[in-house]
Amino acid sequence: MLRKRHILFEVGVCGVKMKQLPFLGIVCTVMLFIVYRTTTYQYRQTEMDEQLNPFYLSKDVGAAFNSLSNLPRGIIQARSDLELKPLWPSSSSRSKVNVSSSHNLLAMPVGISQKSNVDAIAQKFLTENFTIILFHYDAKVDGWWDLDWTKKAIHVVARNQTKWWFAKRFLNPAVVSIYDYIFLWDEDLGVENFHPGRYLKIVKSEGLEISQPALDPNSTGIHHRITIRARANKLHRRVWEVRGSTKCSEDSEGPPCTGFVEGMAPVFSRSAWQCAWHLIQNDLVHGWGMDMKLGYCAQGDRTKKVGVVDSEYIVHQGIQTLGGLSAKKASNPEEATKNKQTVDVRTEIRRQSTSELRIFKKRWEQAVKEDKNWVDPFRKKRRSSRRLIQRLPV
């Protein structure tokens, strides 16, 4: 009797288990459906985040997404450009449509006293269909209209502002995303031996993301030997220096020995500028210290992706006009006395630049300390190189 009850109990339990199997199958199906829907939603939101990325940092993407949630995705355009558009279509405007697949940008801070030199630079770039944007730091825009090409350029006016101030506010990556290369140049560069078309061919063939034309040895204000032209080379990526305070050898893996360009004439690829724009500090307008960190924006190994082109070189004339002349360089004694009684502009600018350099260095160090997930890609490379050297047989 007990054995019969035991058998009946086991059969009952098995029956209950058999009845539970379809139920578990339904539960599993529902769970899989929920996971699928969640994954699909996350994927779509990621797509939206990528569209918004040019305008927003990661911490702002969620808020930006919510603010656009009432718009259909297909209508959202998160990018723009600096191309001029006609007020209405005409036969002449239709015939002048640029069908070129390549777009490049020249951006310069300019003052009216450098008008002739800026014109010489622009003429070189216009032959290669560059878009040109001029940042007028002296607010004297009307003095440029006699040059025909300026009617097709973009003009931005803000008195006594620097190149980096303008770049941070008007060259947002979302606005310049159609341009393959961005030339962010000073106005006092001699371009007699420079051709932008040939320059870009070298940059592309060598895979440079950040570059600059070499400086003629007779240039004014050369601060780092790596920027000086090597006559026998097409380009160079490093320099060897045993004199002075900076020692550059084959083992050197960072600026200013390799992976370095200076701030007077940098050229950025689209991807490199996306990074470099975020490196520009909104309140540090002179840009001091940035050149030592630009290699982090090279989209890879800075010893390979950053270079100085020797065959297309420029002359840095070292003419400082932003903010006015110093008392030492005033054109006449009366003007010198007047400047001396007020303020020595160049001295004050240098003092401010030095102060900003200290602030930038401190911010970098603080950012590295606070970002626990950040790993210095070049420090890792240095350690690997040292371990390899130690393993080599003597």
- Indicate how many domains the architecture comprises: 2
Determine the oligomeric state from the structure: single chain
Written as H for each helix and E for each strand, in order along the chain, the element string is HHHEHEEHEEHEEEHHEHHH
From the alpha-carbon coordinates, what is the Rg to the nearest angstrom?
30 Å
* CATH class type of the largest domain: Alpha Beta
Sketch the major β-sheet.
9 strands, mixed
Give the CATH H-level superfamily of the largest domain. Spore Coat Polysaccharide Biosynthesis Protein SpsA, Chain A
User: Which structural class is indicated by helix and strand composition?
Assistant: alpha/beta
Q: Uncertain runs with pLDDT below 50, 5 residues or more?
A: 385-394
Helix content: 40-55%
- CATH architecture assignment of the largest domain: Alpha-Beta Complex
Mean pLDDT: 83
Q: What is the global morphology?
A: globular
Q: What's the end-to-end separation, in Å? A: 89 Å
